Amino acid sequence: YGKNTIKFLRLHREGKKHFVKEVEVCTHLRLSSAQEYLDGNNSLVIPTDTIKNIVLVLAKKNGIPTIEQFAIDICKHFMTTFCQVVYVKTYVQEVPWQRLHENGAPHIHSFINVPDGIRFCEAEQCRNGPLVVFAGIKDLKLMKTTQSGFEGFYKNEHTTLPERHDRILCGELFCKWSYGECKDFDFDCIWNKVRECILEAFSGPPDCGEYSPSYQKTVNSIQMLILSKVSQVQVIEAVLNNTFYNVVDMKDLGLTNDKEVLVPVETPYGSCACTLARK
User: Fold this and answer.
1) How far does Cα 265 stand from its chain's mean position?
2) pLDDT digit of tens for each residue in the chain (279 aa)?
3) Any keyword Phosphoprotein (predicted)?
């Protein structure tokens, strides 16, 4: 059991300069006995309101240097404070606030919400077991307007999809990776490296791009580049939910539409998923 959707903003001041972390936290516990479920005996139950208050107090006392470290702090607190807790899992996701810049100069206390992917993490620990950390990015919307196709696929009497060698590739990406046993990692640096790998593998070189024969191959290319460049990542899961675009037929309007006006196909949409690990 636990407490979901604990939302708050942590403001840190260094003189006139301000720093913000707005997060959503979910913390779940497993106790040494199931007596509250079986017998209605609540003597071991830590109220979810107490769980919420502990999260807020830890944010006040420790700050949030990174969301991964904050998740670790929460897990360690429950594991060391309550002997009846045998398992704790904490999920933290961050609101994407970025510092405003004016004429290239960073503003000391103003920020802008930039929806270019939501950072999240998980930390979990069993009593007498290692503390394991996961991190990820979700709701990252990506598009390239060419250098993508889909050909040579299996066909039978139910197939109506035409082959395409030049199409828009657009999708919303979810990526989650494991660091394995918790170590003293620079979580900010690693997360930024992974994000850079995602963008590089998806788009290809800036002057020419890179051809994608399928959404599946693109997902695998992203994972392979991350594993080759970021040694701390042990296992990576990726899900790409696809958005398709259809060219508008403008013949009745007396116009030729050479893939200049397209409309998104809202539903149903495609999805592909893959998990890749080091040997």
Assistant:
1) 24
2) 999 999 999 999 999 999 999 999 999 999 999 999 999 999 999 999 999 999 999 999 999 999 999 999 999 999 999 999 999 999 999 999 999 999 989 999 999 999 899 999 999 999 999 999 999 999 999 999 999 999 999 999 999 999 999 999 999 999 999 997 777 899 999 999 999 999 999 999 999 999 999 999 999 999 999 999 999 999 999 999 998 899 999 999 999 999 999 999 877 788 999 999 998
3) no
Q: How far apart, in whole angstroms, are the C-alpha atoms of residue 37 and residue 212?
A: 52
Q: Which residue matches tokens 């929460």?
A: 74
Q: What number does CATH give the domain 141-277?
A: 3.10.270.10
In angstroms, the CA 169 to CA 147 distance is: 8
Annotated binding site for urate: 48-49, 150, 167, 216, 242
Give the homologous superfamily in CATH for domain 2-129: Urate Oxidase; (3.10.270.10)
Cα dihedral: 241, 132, 53, 65 (round 10): -80
Which pTM does this prediction carry? 0.92
Each domain of the chain, given as residue ranges in start order, spans 2-129, 141-277
Domains 2-129 and 141-277 belong to one CATH topology: yes
Residues of each annotated binding site: 48-49, 150, 167, 216, 242
Residue ranges of the annotated binding site for 5-hydroxyisourate are 48-49, 150, 167, 216, 242
Binding-site residue set for O2: 48, 242
